[in-house]
Design goal:
With 178 residues, the chain is mostly helical. It is built from eight helices and no strands. The longest helix is centred in the C-terminal third of the chain and has 28 residues. This is Alkyl hydroperoxide reductase AhpD.
Length: 178
């Protein structure tokens, strides 16, 4: 099982991450599609080969092909959007906020799965990528779609733990090679 492999790979000083990984993924109350779509999108967003290699096969086994593709699409489009909208927000010149983005993001309008699932995955990726504007936007869409705050919190808890596991394991790999 992927979770067990990741937990066993974590060093002793990251015991909290082991416990959190087991609880946010292994004991989640989210429906399978929301859970594993979030996990896959976050694994991709973490940019960690180790984490992606372990979590992708399990995510694939739980997701229908259209959900698997949509989760990857959420990670892809948010990799672009998070940089663009975070930069536009951080620049002190408000005129950038009035300019048309001119970037294709058609998948957001037609993701191939329920809109709220795709938006939840986009929110989780935005948490990893640190885009406040995108976090606000996607949170508003899922909340209007009937998703409760607890579900939103589950998504960004998954994002935070997957990212922390990725950072820790990637650092340990580099340190082992020194």
């Amino acid at each position: 099982m992927a979770l067990d492999a990741l937990k066993s790979a974590l060093p002793d000083y990251a015991k909290d991450l082991k416990l959190n990984l087991g609880s946010v993924i292994g004991n989640s109350d989210l429906p399978q599609q929301q859970l594993w779509g979030t996990v896959l999108a976050c694994a991709i967003a973490s940019r960690s080969p180790i984490v992606l290699r372990e979590l992708e096969p399990e995510a694939r086994s739980y997701l229908k092909p259209e959900a698997y593709t949509a989760a990857k699409a959420a990670a892809a489009v948010m990799a672009m959007n998070n940089v663009y909208y975070r930069t536009r927000h951080l620049l002190s010149d408000p005129e950038y906020g009035t300019m048309r983005a001119g970037l294709r993001m058609n998948v957001i309008g037609n993701p191939g799965v329920e809109k709220t699932d795709f938006e939840l995955w986009s929110l989780a990726v935005s948490a990893i990528n640190g885009c406040g504007a995108c976090l606000d936007s996607h949170e508003q869409v899922v909340r209007k779609g009937g998703v409760d705050r607890e579900t939103v919190q589950e998504a960004f808890k998954i994002a935070s733990v997957v990212q922390a596991v990725a950072a820790t394991l990637d650092a340990e790999e580099v340190l082992a090679g020194l």
